[in-house]
């Protein structure tokens, strides 16, 4: 298939923003394109950058176009296609949702898909195995009556497959109530006692084929084996070689050759193993469900008469006033209108220290109000909170299959048929070719059938990936899929945007230098500074660029009164802005603008050089005939940036800063942060080219940006990272990995988690295949029994689950 990233690298990037004042690091950067060409306004534009990048195996990459088609393999190796998103997209088409408690494995998914895809009216099926939910999308023109009729047919079909579908409504609880397992435990205990009794009876001298032994065996099979036998029959009818079919064949075969107690022990052990596996996987499932339970179901809402009353969060709408008392969790995203408090938002951003919030600050659903009473106005619908989006992304990511999982699935497709074929040959070749007894060789073949199920192998990867994704989400690192979790370990170079990534992205006015004053003067006159600041602020008030805001904020801090009116305002792409104040036309912009006007001189050059050497970004105010003043703004380095880059260097990662700012400013910031390589005065396409060059040099490369203006570079990188709080909406939607609290130390933490996940994956695959290989050899020489093979299969599955879930205990920043 075509590789979008390769296409992007071959074609000139379209996602290039032509800013009024020159190239920018981000939508809120203020760099220079060439020497001192970095200040620009007019950022009221929209970005439409595709974020598709699929790095194929040939390039050593991975697929991450965010709309994957996933070829899954069911437990024990039967293929099943997992629908790309875990949550059905919101469309105008009518839908029906069901919770199916029996659906937690691709085996069930394939059975359901085979039956429902042919049903009339069914357009698309979306499976969420994590939540055991099925969404059936019908044709867009399906009437309400037909939707009801089709839904009834779907439910009836699911019941025929031995499943119990529970219809869900749009306001149904996100987390399915846990099913009681007391009856199952009692049944398994009783079956286990009976199976052990049959074995003990034979060992004590009772004939193996006596009526008493036969009755005990049948009772054990009836208690523990009927669900397996039923699923095996369903698999046979659908030509699916899954674990239930293989186990059913082994049990029936054992009964046929007279190994009655062993048949009972095999079915009981298998039933116990399924229960244990389900319990282990439920722990991983609940780790994600716990994220959604962080937000309360009820909220204290202001009523029309001014009183307060609790009401369901699901019924809230945008614009309502909600309060959170000390000790309570914030119910929904909003903006504080009254009060102040310290909020613990670790569940959202991973920040370990509570954050002080006051009027005008944003609050997130799930945060804990630690001290004061706050009243906030809701800003989103209940289903669109940052927490809800995080959960949806994590669930979708868990459905997407990593490169290792795809390899394991492909391997298991070959492994199971090959082992079954070997078992068949073991059963018939020795008796037919050499005249040996049938029973011993059939027994060996049955043992091999049990070994043929690669349950431990197939489950080893998803449980590890799910645990890694969940651990990252808990720490405020949002990963879009297992492919990115695995790719992180391969990264050898990281490119970083400057503004908002290494720095805070909050520039402030530092210098106002009127050029009419004598260069020897120690200080500019107060009146001259105020005059040029007023002119610059009047022009900057017409746009929303961060540097413009810094100039306007500086003017307001000086309390110089109302700004004069500006007419004939115009943005000058790549240079700056112009506008008429009174009868005079003024210009405000970068070095290129001043040179184009022909008013640049030695004094301007000297001031620009001086200011840029102090890591400040300078702009020039001019009329049509002369330069009037030089103004400068500065951004501050994040405290954690240097620590993060030190960690990256210690991990053997090359760090490169890509910025549109002037070279002198970039060099100072780079030295402060400890960046290995500083590249300045870069347009978006220059960053894109830098990423392609880094990929050629280092192989796998990460890019840290805001997910919008850096889209060409992000698309060219193997993994794109976004800083969450500076652009949460865009970051959550476009980046491969989002650092939710803008703490750059989470970048090396992600890479460390990726490396640890890769180690666990290798351990799991080695354990699963090693145990199978040992028992395959034992089966061939006749040293393994059926119950030993089942026990080994159970043990291997539990080992890989437990090992994979160790990632849930991973500590990050």
Automatic annotation (TrEMBL):
Protein family per UniProt: Belongs to the cation transport ATPase (P-type) (TC 3.A.3) family. Type IB subfamily.
Start and end residues of each HMA domain: 98-162
This protein's name: P-type Zn(2+) transporter
Its EC number(s): 7.2.2.12
Originating organism: Pandoraea iniqua
GO MF entries: ATP binding; ATP hydrolysis activity; cadmium ion transmembrane transporter activity; metal ion binding; P-type zinc transporter activity
Keyword annotations: ATP-binding, Cell membrane, Hydrolase, Membrane, Metal-binding, Nucleotide-binding, Translocase, Transmembrane, Transmembrane helix
Topology in the lipid bilayer: Multi-pass membrane protein
Catalysed reactions, as listed in the record: Zn(2+)(in) + ATP + H2O = Zn(2+)(out) + ADP + phosphate + H(+)
